[in-house]
Amino acid sequence: MKKTFLKIAAPVAGVLAALMLSSCDNSDNNMMEDLPLQRTITFENVVTPKDFVQSGSFQGTGASPLIMPGQTTSITFSAGKTQALMFATMYGASKDWFFASQQPGIKLFDANGNAITGDVSSSVLLWDNGTRDNISGAAESKTIAQVPNVNASQLMKLNLSYNDVTSQFTLTITNTSGGTANETPFSPGVWAVSNYNGSQLLNSAPFFTPNALSNPEITDIAQMGNIDKMKTKLNANTGIMTGLSPVLVVVYQGDKNPIYELGKVDNGLGLKDIAQFGNVTKLQNSLKALPNVKNVYIAGSAPVTPGNKVMTGFRADPGDKIAYATMFGFSNDWFYANEQSIDGNATGDLTSKTSLFDSGTGIDQYPGAGNHQALFGGTPQSENTVISKVGTLYPVPAVQNVIKVTVN
User: Fold this and answer.
1) Greatest alpha-carbon span in the chain
2) At what angle do helices 216-224 and 228-236 cross, to 10 degrees?
């Protein structure tokens, strides 16, 4: 009997063991499926900073590109506090003289942040490029210096006007040299506004450095009135850049992104604070109170400058979704966010799901050159339009050239 029992018990024990192992395996799998997944989401600022936010050229408005005595031309550009306008044009009746202001350019705002308008002719100076003898025209190698005993402001009149809504200036240049001892045409010229990163100009000595040897670009202007080399250099070094704000990340359920709704007016939960000032606090608190929101995370605690990144861990259950938002820092009211919904289990590069949006809460100005932008300590002028994707009015870099979003 004992032998029979053992023969029966052994197979039964094996079956029970197998059932127990099978039960344990299923239980473990179910537990793993039910556990929230730990992920890390990273936001990188990959924009390439350029020296100038805007640049361009000007010339006479008549049949000739020269600006003759008595003639006028103008340029329009954007700027915020601390920024300045640099321009250069040849004093035509010379071997190598050119008009330009002191570095970093014509001052555009006073100490109180008010735009400077009216006659700013005193800002223009006349410079000797130091590459040609003033009498013979023979080549020489001297440093750039102001031309003595010539008052440039008597030869060139400069007048500034300003549009506060757009933060745009118009500089009108008039050749007033006619009838003077220094009568001269002006050549076509170039102009630029240096980028500002929140603490300093990226180029505080545009075009040339006083008391130093000249460069090929300004030499061509000073000797021949040829702006081609300088235009090429400016084009290569001009572009919109931006910082990013700390990034709000939300884990939620359902089909509706709780941060924003395209084509609808901002709901007042706090997106405006992010889009205008990079402040995540109000939206963070508002989202936490919504029934479909499971958690809210913040990546970073300070502006994310070019070349830097921030990240945050987050947990998501199967079926959860994630969304995020960060300010395009050099704007009045723009923000990056995912346009497409993102599964909480997603990993890899999510940049393609990201778009740049206008929150519709502040009047736009040229990015990085608008005096009502938070970058310059300003407050956007209010508007109330629907949330939309940023268009092509300004030459904003493609999304993938500004921000990179990855999850691992």
Assistant:
1) 135
2) 150
28's tokens = 């473990």
Count Cα atoms within 13 angstroms, Cβ side, for 340.
8
Across the range 73-98, mean pLDDT stands at 98
Q: Identify the burial level of 24 via C-beta atoms within 10 angstroms of its C-beta, where 0-12 means exposed, 13-18 middle and 19 or more buried.
A: exposed
HEC profile of 107-158: ECECCCCCECCEECHHHEEEEECCCECCCCCCECCCCCEECCCCCHHHCEEE
Phi-psi region of 61 (alpha: psi -120 to 50; beta: other; left: phi over 0): alpha
Instruction: Report the number of secondary-structure helices (H) and strands (E) in the chain.
Output: 5, 22
Q: Where in the chain is the domain with CATH 2.60.40?
A: 241-407
> If you search the block for the tokens 């603490």, which residue do you land on?
199
pLDDT number for residue 36: 58
What is the reported pLDDT for 3?
Answer: 37
Model confidence at 17, pLDDT cuts 50, 70, 90, reads very low
pLDDT over 60 at 25, yes or no? no
Q: Are β-strands 156-163 and 52-58 bridged in parallel, bridged antiparallel, or unpaired?
A: unpaired
CB atoms within 10 A of CB 298: 14
CATH of 241-407, one of 1.10.510, 1.10.10, 2.60.40, 1.10.287: 2.60.40
Chain centre to alpha carbon of residue 239? 8
